[in-house]
Amino acid sequence: MRLSQAFVPTVKEIPADATIPSHQLMIRAGMVRALAAGVYVFLPLAQKVLARVMRIVREEMDAIGGQELLLPSLSPIELWEQTGRVKAFGDTLFHVKNRPLVLAPTHEEVVCWLARNHISSYKEMPQIWYQIQTKFRNEPRPRSGVLRGRQFLMKDSYSLDRSREGLDRAYDLHAGAYKRIFTRCGIRFFIVGASSGAMGGTGSQEFMMESPSGEDVIALSEDGTYAANLEVATSIVPAAVRVPGGTAIEEVHTPGVKTIDALSAFLKVDTRCLAKSVVYRAGDAHVLVLMMGNDSLNESKLMAVLGTDVRPLEAEKLRELTGADGGSIGPVGLRGFTILADNRLKGANGLISGANRNDYHLRNIDLERDCAIGGYHDLRTVEEGEPSPNGGGNLRIVRGIELGHIFKLGTKYADALGAMFLDENGKESPVIMGSYGIGIERIVACHIEQNHDDNGIVWDRALAPYDVHLIAVSARSAQVTEAAEALYGELGRSGVDVLFDDRKETSPGFKFKDADLLGMPYQVIVGEKNLAAGKIEIKERKTGTRTLVPKADLVATIQNLLS
RNA sequence: CGGGGCGUAGCUCAGCCCGGUAGAGCGCUUGGUUUGGGACCAAGAAGUCGCAGGUUCGAAUCCUGUCGCCCCGACCA
């Protein structure tokens, strides 16, 4: 492609609305333009990159027996009502105003509908169906360029199996394919155990890339053998002790003491003797959760235990129910609440907690003796530096971008939509499903996040829109133009994908800056002086290394570098 | 949904506090000079100041409403 004719609107200045490197560079390199919040136009350069990503994805999906299909984006709202996901998605689901249709945010329902109508025997499974298509989600807050849009490309695959073992196999096949896909795309990633959240199901892993721009928080062990989303991460922390010969509860006056730190300082005791009360509303119920000392409650874990959404209880409601304010709440004699406690407090005594009376606390609380604990669960958020549960060293807490997510869905959707089959014994069972997604734009953005420098993008060969950026330094020189034109033709004929900067009126500096910004793996620079000596310059974008090769060897050298 | 910020030329922004006929740089057009790291000179084109209402002799500027966009948080299948 000739740059003089290409639509690659590069910009020199950093766009005001872009805050992360990939977003800034995708705009500056003329790859995307925002049409509306979270909605992007993909320009020719970006389209070429997307095509390369999709090709890799298709190859790897086909390699595990996946069959590509094309599903509609419009889908009858009735299907979504049957699985309860109109409610589950809430405002995130785009509704069509003048027909009972929704814009599909994912396609489990449609796949299940297909399976219901066309899979009736165990002999017809396993199946892996996949699609690479636009999905629509009315995100409350689109952000970070193409990383979270309201419309985005997703490779989604769905496995249909007749047994749990079959599902495990499909899941493992996908995990393997995903590793190969991200590796081939030149992305350094890691895999974390994740919460399956509102998708439902039994098992789930996320493929993540470490990035300060990420929206997820991950605990990683030092040796990298443990990685889990903070929503489910655990660590090794000492449990509370049970002291022999418990003494009776006694009330202590603690004027103005509202925090664990203040209480610890006031009573001159270790924070581990303190049981912090956190109060939530879970549907119509009220829940008090006891945490040790300054441990912070993990809302995701709490939601998983309760199986429902939670939100902090309003201050007024709290006072109405307990007669006290936050900071003075405790489990003893409390009515109207379900009381849960973190595992760390299991069987503890000698604890101090709120007295449900402002400015008073109780000491010598024995959870077994004095409280009606509704259950002990892991409800704690792990912290930086705590030992990894698998002995892989201490935990680091990092931010990450989710590139892919694989789920063992089970029969949730098949049950809801009646996708049944007859097994070997003629018995009817629901189809067992898995679902496996990859964000296509995210691969592109993440690749740029990991591969750029101050001057621009540094494409990996696998994703680069072109292999070579050919520059005619001074396009007014007849010799340079002639030589560059000849090389453009030769490279093209030998199968090298070339972007040719043949612009006549553009200064050399401008061309070099554009070439670095666009980031093709190799720049072939045709300049007057080198040409006079029969030489052509090759610059490797990644390292900045420049080599001069005889003009006659240029094509062979490039072919060599690319192979 | 809570908090904060911003809408002025294609882009980046000034002007707004303190009302008085719309500005700069980059980009674009034309002519000329220039050509190894985002050139120079000259002449030009280009903006309903997001939109609506109000106050005023007069509004980019003050007031009200509204829409859009960005950031932090919440949410994130």
Task: Tell me what you see in this structure.
The chain has three domains: 21-188 and 415-448, 2-Layer Sandwich (BirA Bifunctional Protein, domain 2); 250-377, YbaK/aminoacyl-tRNA synthetase-associated domain (YbaK protein, Alpha-Beta Complex); 468-562, Rossmann fold (3-Layer(aba) Sandwich). α2 runs antiparallel to α6. The strands form eight sheets. Strands 3, 7, 8, 9, 10, 11, 12, 21 and 24 form a nine-stranded mixed beta sheet that branches. The chain has a five-stranded mixed beta sheet with strand order 16-14-15-17-20. It has a five-stranded mixed beta sheet with strand order 28-27-29-30-31, sandwiched between helices. The model has no long low-confidence stretch (mean pLDDT 92). It has 16 helices and 31 strands. By secondary structure, the protein is of the alpha+beta class. The longest helix has 21 residues, at 164-184. A hairpin with a 5-residue loop joins β18 (351-354) and β19 (360-365). The protein binds one RNA strand of 77 nucleotides through residues 9, 11-19, 34, 36-37, 85, 88-90, 92, 105-106, 108, 137, 139-141, 143, 148, 196-200, 215-216, 311, 402, 405, 407, 435, 437, 471, 473-477, 505-514, 516-517, 525, 527-530, 537.
Query: Which class of secondary structure composition applies to the elements?
Result: alpha+beta
Tell me the distance between the termini.
Answer: 21 Å
CATH superfamily of the largest domain: Bira Bifunctional Protein, Domain 2
What is the tally of helical segments? 16
Rg, please?
A: 30 Å
Largest sheet: 9 strands, mixed
